Every structure is written in structure tokens, then in C-alpha cells.
Amino acid sequence: MFMMILSPYLRKVKIINIKIIVIVCFSTCFFAIFVVKYTRKTGMMKGNFKMNNKRDENMVRITTKELADRFIDEQIKALREQIGKRKVLLALSGGVDSSVVAALLIKAVGDQLVCVHVNHGLLRKGEPEQVVRVFRDELGANLIYVDAVDRFLDKLAGVAEPEKKRKIIGAEFIRVFEEEARKLHGIDFLAQGTIYPDILESGPVKAHHNVGGLPDDLKFELVEPIKLLFKDEVRVVGKALGLPDNMVNRQPFPGPGLGVRCLGAITRDRLEAVRESDAILREEFAAAGLEGKVWQYFTVVPDYRSVGVKDGLRSFEWFVVIRAVNTRDAMTAAIEPIPYELLGKIVNRITSKVKGVNRVLYDLTPKPTGTIEWE
């Protein structure tokens, strides 16, 4: 099925130490295809790598610390067996998934892990600084920070079609990541925070963002320890690993970042409108006690203007759309009812503080029919 979905972008890459067969999709997907058996009692990984990417229907959902601890113990053992004394490279976004992978790898192989954080200009307000502070300063990770804002935004200029934007972001990330990888020596493994919904949605729904298309001569073996877990399971594992609550309960954030929330062709001024309105929404949700209770909430700004009135004068500006949903596994999602008083406060702050915005809407569409993200 994957061959049908990903064709004609596929080709096989030969790995010197043949433990897996990696299939590279140049539409920004990077898959290690293997089957992992799970026990009915613990839901833990067992068995050798084979040709599949399917979660066993008998795998028990990881809902308790006991199950998470068993998963962690087995993953640490498996990672040590796979990696040995060699080094592994991780693209660290600071999101829940890559953070849990980083924590697992730190426990398993310590300073053999090298993290690369690429700031592509599409992150939320304050996030690049937070990633550096938490991972380098607090967790002591070997972190390389790359400022590539201008590079990404220049590549995206004038591109409106969502899948093209995703592919450009993915391809440029590959190039930046490749450049950083070439500066390093002795890297044999590439780690990713792929989770099971990524695999299920890649192809039929949208192109997924994980690293792909790296040149043959980089010959990385893929490490994806949480690829068969759902998001709720990842959070349980992260908490069991001792990660801070504000990191474990952090909202999901797409790989292309605000690039798929600045709808249509990205402009720097509209991108800032997305970033600032999103920051206001998050601040108000936190103040209202909704942080950690609502699964995901964010704003989007379409490339469309509406007539309004500001300071007694006609305005012709963008509108902001609020999206707030609750879900267990991201496969379906229900709309979160926001108190009207809170909505009014958010609207007032956004329309008065965010430059170029004169209107705010609230998206009431569940999944299905609408995906959580707009693009």
C-alpha cells in the first residue's frame, strides 16, 4: 500500500549494517518499514525488524506508569543493542514527540546523542529560546542551534498550495540538516519523533513532515522508538521519563509549524499576525485554567481580507480563526466549548493588539470532516 501511495518518489537506500531497509520519499516522508510484535499483557516491543509499519491490534494501550516503565526499559535495551557505542543524530523541535525520543536516547546512550534544532522562522512566539534553555541549559543535551529563518521564508515566498509548502519546508529542512550532519563525524543513526498517527495519515491525508530524502552517502540507520504509539501514550511515557509537565502536556505542533497556519502564500507580516494571535490565545487559555485541559488550540490567518472599522475609519484587514479541539489519539476530534466571556476577551485583545487584523472567527468543525489543522 505504501508503495502505491508514495510512488513515484521512492527509491531504496542501501545500509552498510543491514538491520532495516529504509525507503526515502522525496515528498518529505522518511520511513523505516518494519514489523514489531507486541505482547498482549504489556504492549511492549518484541521481535526482529521486518517489512511493516503496522501497530499490532493486540497491543495494550499504554495508560499507566507501570506500562510506560516497561516500555521505557525495553526501549532502552533495544536502543543500546541497536546503537552500541556509536552516535545518533536527532532533529529536536522541542515538541512532545521529539522531546520524549531525546529523553529515551539520553537514558540509553547519553552523550552519544547529538541534537540539532533548526529555527525555520515558523515556530511559535518564544519557542526557539525555550528549546535552547530547556534542552541545553537544563537537561544538558548536546544541542546545535541553527538560525535558518531567512532561508526558509525566501524559499516559501509566493507559494500558496499547502502540499507544495510542506514539501518545500521538508526539502529545505533536509538540506539544512544535511549541512549540519556533514560537519559532524561518526554519526551512524538518525532519530525521529514519528508517532503512529503520522504513519496513518501520511499519503492518503497529507504529506508528513519527518526528515526524508537525505543523500545516499550519509547512510543513516533510522531510530524511531515511539513510532507505534499514539499521542496520549507518548505523554504517559514522557511523564514516566521525568520530563516537566509543561513539556509533556505541550500542545501538538505540526512539523511545518506556522507555515500551515499562515494560509496560502506566506508573507512575513501575516506570519507575525499568526504568531502574535496564537500567543494571545495561549496566554488567555492559561489564565483561564484551560492549559492542559484542551488538547490543542491555535489560530490561523487566511490570505483574505474583510471590511471593518477601526478608530472610526474603514479598515480592510485579515481575520483570525481560532481552533480549539479535544481528542484522545488525533484520529478524531471534538470542538472545545469556550466560555463566551473568555472568547470576548480573546477577540478584544487580538483585534486591538495584532497589527493588520480586524475580525476573529471560531471554527466549530469536528474531525471528521475537517482535519485539526487547516492545511
Describe it:
With 375 residues, the chain is of the alpha/beta class. The protein folds into 2 domains: 247 residues, HUPs (Rossmann fold, 3-Layer(aba) Sandwich), CATH 3.40.50; 101 residues, 2-Layer Sandwich (GMP Synthetase, Chain A, domain 3), CATH 3.30.300. It is 36% helix and 20% strand. The protein is built from 11 helices and 15 strands. Strands 8-7-6-9-10 form a 5-stranded parallel beta sheet, with helices on both faces. A hairpin with a 7-residue loop joins strand 13 and strand 14. The radius of gyration is 21 Å and the shape is globular.
Give a quick precis of the structure.
Helices cover about 35% and strands about 20% of the residues. With about 375 residues, the protein is of the alpha/beta class. α3 (about 95-110) crosses α8.
Poorly predicted sequence stretches spanning 5 or more consecutive residues = 1-51
SSE succession:
HEEEEEHEHEHEHHEHEHHHEEEEHE
Instruction: Count the beta strands.
Output: 15
* CATH class category label of the largest domain: Alpha Beta
| Strands in their spatial order, largest beta sheet | 8-7-6-9-10
Mean pLDDT metric: 83
Feature tags:
alpha/beta; Rossmann fold; GMP Synthetase, Chain A, domain 3; 2 domains; 5-stranded parallel beta sheet; 5-stranded mixed beta sheet; 11 helices; 15 strands; 36% helix; globular; disordered N terminus
Protein topology:
Elements lengths: L1 H5 L3 E4 L8 E4 L3 E4 L4 E2 L6 E2 L18 H19 L3 E5 L4 H14 L3 E7 L7 H12 L4 E5 L1 H8 L5 H22 L3 E5 L4 H6 L19 E3 L7 H10 L4 H4 L19 H20 L8 E5 L4 E6 L2 E14 L7 E2 L4 H14 L3 E6 L13
Helix pairs in contact: 2-3, 2-8, 3-8, 5-6, 10-11
